[in-house]
Amino acid sequence: MTDELAITGVECFAHHGVLDFERRDGQIFAIDLVLGLDTAPAAASDDLHETVDYGSLVGAVKAAVERDPVDLIETLAQRIADVCLLDNRVEWVRVTVHKPNAPIDATYSDVALTITRANGGPTRD
């Protein structure tokens, strides 16, 4: 059985984007994570070492977002998924990258990409 751990709205400032001013000026990105893992061992032992330390994970994800600019949020989402899957207890991860200030010439609320990846490769919903 897989449980789900959700961490939403992790704000990061980074310089991703195709356009020159996005790379130069940077912007806010927000990250949502849902991790599939078995939390029963941690529940039984009440020991942090038996589960994913989400504080450390958020720090690693934030560092991954804020380094090395890329053109596409697709590339960024994959980078984040790779960080989350480094912990073998994570069976799968769903990553949403929000780019609320994307350069679109229209009124809109958000641009978001969601991907799901599993240890062993992409999953299909």
From TrEMBL:
The upper taxonomy is:
Bacteria, Bacillati, Actinomycetota, Actinomycetes, Propionibacteriales
According to UniProt, the name of this protein is: 7,8-dihydroneopterin aldolase
Signal sequence bounds: none
Entry function: Catalyzes the conversion of 7,8-dihydroneopterin to 6-hydroxymethyl-7,8-dihydropterin.
Q: Which GO terms describe its biological process?
A: folic acid biosynthetic process; tetrahydrofolate biosynthetic process
Entry's EC annotation: 4.1.2.25
Family to which this protein belongs: Belongs to the DHNA family.
A GO cellular-component term linked to this record? cytoplasm
Domain Dihydroneopterin aldolase/epimerase stretches: 5-117
The pathway it acts in is:
Cofactor biosynthesis; tetrahydrofolate biosynthesis; 2-amino-4-hydroxy-6-hydroxymethyl-7,8-dihydropteridine diphosphate from 7,8-dihydroneopterin triphosphate: step 3/4
